[in-house]
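Observation: inputs received (chain + 2-(butylsulfanyl)adenosine).
Thought: call the complex predictor directly.
Action: predict_structure
Action Input:
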Amino acid sequence: MDKQADLKRIADLRKIIDYHNKRYYQQDAPEISDAEYDRLMKELQDLEDHYPEKHSAESPTQRVGAAPLVKFASFNHPSPMFSLANAFSNEEIIEFDGRIKRLAGVNNISYIAEPKLDGLAVNLIYENGIFTRGATRGDGTTGEDVTQNLKTISSLPLKMKKSDVKTIPEFIEIRGEVYIQKEPFHKLNLRRMKEGEEPFANPRNAAAGSLRQLDSKITSRRPLNIFLYGVGNVRGIVFSNHWEVLQTLSGWGFPVNSLIKPADNILSCIEYFENISTQRENLPYEIDGVVLKVNDLALQAALGNVSRSPRWALACKFPAAQATTTIKDIIVGVGRMGTLTPVAIMEPVNVGGVMVSRATLHNEDEVLKKDVRVGDTVVIQRAGDVIPEVVKVILEKRTGKEKEFKMPGKCPECNSDVVRLEGEVAHRCVNISCPAQLKEHIRHFASRGAMDIEGLGEKVSAQLFDAKLITDPADLYFLSKDQLVALDRQAEKSAQNLIEAISKSKKPPLDKFIYALGIRHVGERTAKLLAAHFGSMENLMAAQIEDLTAINEIGPEIAASILEFFHEHKNIDVMKKFNNAGVTPQKKEITGNAPWRGKSFVFTGTMDSMSRNDAKAIVENLGGTIHSSVTKSTTYVVAGSDPGSKLEKAKSSGIKIISEEDFLKLAGR
Ligand code: IVH
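Observation:
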């Protein structure tokens, strides 16, 4: 074989395939058939196999080529992926700015304004410029490893381009949004319908469905695109503002939305929002609002987060999509906590691209306030992922035949009494063994964000319960395959899979287990705080009210609910049953929400990338303290340029001395 000629062919094929990828994905104008494309890819793959030393992370073969997966691996994000607080009016935007000014103690803030893409968030890891791993957002801490599928996105560089502005960092997390443009989305749906498949409801669902395909070959034929808009942990370089981050990403070859603009003050942000609103229809991709971000990264760090959203960013949402339909019935559902929720069953209607046939009416007061009756014509709305709700009744359409709603006096599931506790809007079923509550409880226990037991959805939970095989979640661990096979429609194979999935869930992360228990007021976030603070189930179960309220973010109501849960005999029995079944939540190192608790820092000399105030904010945000002089209890002395006598003191006392760069690394920046 002529090696020279082969190597040239490798280089040519890479260029030819890149060109056809662009024609297919970006310009939506393929010039060759799929079969011809596959032939070129195969030729390149064969040549690369023959010359492994010519392997390149940038080769188009790296974008497809992995065998289908059975399940995605989970991926722990090195730094958490937050979500955004929403604003629906100019007043809320002004309030956001006011809050930041107050906290920062300044009277003007510069922002970066960005279109809010309607796709799904991803986190990409690049090590020394090479794309190594990528994942979906998941719950913000853990996502799904979709590396192979991300590689199929032709506009995503597998290797960062060198740029004059910044060197390529040793490690960087890059955040962005995977989406599908409107036109390719319609074509994809036409193709699906021709092939007898269900069309996707909207581009966002199509993007999510495509990225979460176990077979990356399927993903590679979906018109996925990506925009990058931020970074997480970075090692090796330092950024000082968000604009610089975006410019750098673009310089490295990442697609960055060209409509992103700096805005000198909040009024420019509002103007930007109005301007983008008028362009929305004509954009080739869907957006659902505008995101405002404080430009100064040190200020971002100082502002920190509230719950899962940063204080320094805001999603300004376009008004919710609305539609008109009629109410066929109002039914009552019973939730995990026994709450009765009225639900409107409607004539199906398309609301902003999604077919909707149910809307929550929240509670009886809400039904009465809005005066919603069966037979009414109503306006409903849907904003983002929120469950659709009834906005108002169109009274002019009333005929007089409409029927008023009344909350039933007995639980629709178990016929027990329904009560409304003082001070609460909710009606509850009094029976703690109400089948509806228990079924819901088991479904919650097995759900994705909780124990994540595959194959144990709503239907199977209800089936197991109705067959009296289980009455609480701990019973799951005593089920046998034969019992499952005896159940309706549980084939041998799926019974085996379910038993394995249940058994695999015996060592859950502590926070997932706490969340799975379904303690009132304990959502995913609170469960994480409890796990980090107590470290084990034993500690949590022994906690007193003061131990619980000592945790930032846990108030008396949540604390009382946790205490009540672990005092209830039935729950104590269930906990024992878990123990007997060998369910052992994994202990966690106790960090509290302050990984630097107990650490003290002394700064000396001039810092290049931050003011003393910024440094203070970083330390305090992580729970540490700053002192002005070196003592025996100082943990670190951070030395900038021209350090003073504190450095000498640290040296002579054997205190650990670190550079500004080390400090930032330590802080995960
Ligand atoms: S920044 C802490 N920028 O909106 C900052 N998010 O509601 C987190 N999104 O999960 C994200 N366009 O999926 C940011 N230009 C943009 C965005 C954007 C769309 C999505 C993203 C995020 C969600 C939060």
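Thought: report the result.
Final Answer: Residues 82-84, 114, 116-117, 121, 137, 177, 229-230, 291, 310, 313, 315 surround 2-(butylsulfanyl)adenosine (CB under 6 Å). The CA atoms of residues 446 and 616 lie 43 Å apart.
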